[in-house]
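Field reference: sequence -> structure
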Amino acid sequence: MDSRLIALAIPVFFLLIAVEAVVSRVQKVRRYRLHDTLASLGCGIGEQVIVAFTATLAFVGYLFLEKHAALLHIGTGSVVAWVLVFVVVDHQFYWFHRASHRVNFMWAGHAVHHQSEDYNLSTALRQSWIENLLAWPFYLPMAIVGFPFAMFATASTLNTLYQFWVHTRLIGKLGPAEGVLNTPSSHRVHHGVDPKYVDKNYGGMFMVWDRLYGTYTAEEEEPIYGTVKPLRSWSPLWAQIDGWVRLWTMARATSRFGDKVRVWVAPPDWRPADLGGQVIIPEVDRGAYRKYDSEASSAVDRYVVSQFLFVAAGTSAIMWFSRAMSAPLLAVSSGWVLVAVVGWGGLFEGRRWAVPLEVARHAAGLGIAFTLQRLGTPPPIVGAMVVATVVSLLFLATSAAARPVPSAQSRSTL
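Structure field:
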């Protein structure tokens, strides 16, 4: 994907999230919760800075096959070729997406996108930090056919951008478009944990693949959102590793060697016989269902919101300038961002390590600012970074972290 195009889209994403939140408030419908929203955005921010490193590893295979194994030489000036590349990209996305739900090691990555128990535009930005690497093999046949990398990258980026708007509850069914295009109604089904909705509607831009391959289901009652096994955490870091921990724990617990291997490639509802066997996804008791929640002091909430704005700006800069940054500076800057999103999850959950981690991050931020000064960065930019860091430290010092109180959970889980 084109990181610069995504960087340009980020302000639009945030504006639309704000509009949806305001409309929800006017309608007196609670579609956003602060902790959930920032946990989702933290996952998205982390994914974008990590892609700065993984994208090169991912697309080198495409470029190699395009150069040495392409069967055709497709020109970028053909309108038919552009239409075809959009269709093929979406077809390949369908199969990658379907595999991400039916192969455990892939689900361990993709589950991040489904963990939010809210469904709003911020959920669209909740992404796995490694899924980019898992997706690329599904697109390599396009290189062998002969689609130029530039065409593929453009189509893939626009396919991703299209999927943002379908993550909303504000828009109902869209008449004839349903079942042809991926719409908010179709995608709400995909995020549901109701048994009849699980593993349905995989398409990115089009629903024709789901109709063709038998995975399309129309929305009836609104789904209950999330994952069958809830995350119950605001930590973007734990969101990324929870699925892997579950698989590792299962592989260690089962006795047969074959099952220890199969755990990683079996569907998520499979269990070894000595761990209970096949799992039946339970119906959700809508009357007793409660979302995960916790409480933190308003001062902590305000502090984390301020840091989110600071970190989001830094992430946009990294995405825009990553090609010009040295590897060490890119690594340190990206690490600073990742520590930030880990820290605010810890603050929301009242973790004792969260405040010391934030202090260390701000100290590192000063070091990055002075390094940029030595590299010739304009003084106003460096000065703004220093001022923002000092203000953040003072804000942190006055923010009394309150230990959160998780809400009762009643959903049956795997």
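Note: Residues 401-414 have pLDDT under 50 and may be disordered.
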